[in-house]
Design a protein that fits this description.
alpha+beta; 5 helices; 163 residues; NADH Oxidase; globular; 6 strands
Length: 163
């Protein structure tokens, strides 16, 4: 559980490749997420090509650092689902699992939002040639962090209500 309290948003990465076994472990964690009716709407694009990372960075208004990551995972979700209204909630759980496993493995990442903004979704779709039956959800650049940062305490007792 320590990853929950250690995870930070990392936007500066060392020029160092992430090992294949770590990438697989991250994807295993992603696919272990809960989903409505166990529909598991996810698929993943693992982007290691530098030109593609640059293209994603250029099309992401707050993601210029994507180009410096060792890789990016782009979670996408299927449109044809038993409970499509829960797909983006399922994807949030999946993305959180990615961020926590990245921390657990000594890597750094940040969640760059794409869905539900149609212009961003379409940009990512075009760059990665994502077929129409899938929707891009986000971009998660991953790499070895340049610095070791600590998460600030976020607990606020004034936001807790007992009845």
């Amino acid at each position: 559980m320590s990853a929950i309290f250690e995870r930070t948003s990392v936007r500066k990465y060392q020029n160092k490749e992430v090992e294949a076994e770590k990438i697989e472990q991250i994807l295993r964690a992603a696919m272990a997420a809960p989903s409505a009716a166990n529909q598991q709407p996810w698929e993943f694009y693992v982007v290691k090509n530098k030109e593609t990372l640059v293209a994603l960075a250029e099309k992401s208004p707050y993601g210029s650092f994507i180009k410096d990551a060792a890789l990016a995972i782009v979670p996408v979700y299927r449109k044809e689902l038993m409970m499509p209204e829960f797909a983006e909630i399922d994807m949030a759980a999946c993305t959180q699992n990615i961020l926590l496993e990245v921390t657990e493995l000594g890597l750094g990442a940040v969640w760059v939002g794409v869905a539900p903004l149609t212009d961003r979704m379409e940009s990512v779709r075009q760059i990665l040639r994502i077929p129409e039956h899938l929707n891009p959800y986000g971009i998660i650049p991953i790499g070895y962090p340049v610095a070791d940062t600590k998460q600030k305490e976020r607990y606020d007792a004034t936001r807790v209500h007992f009845e």
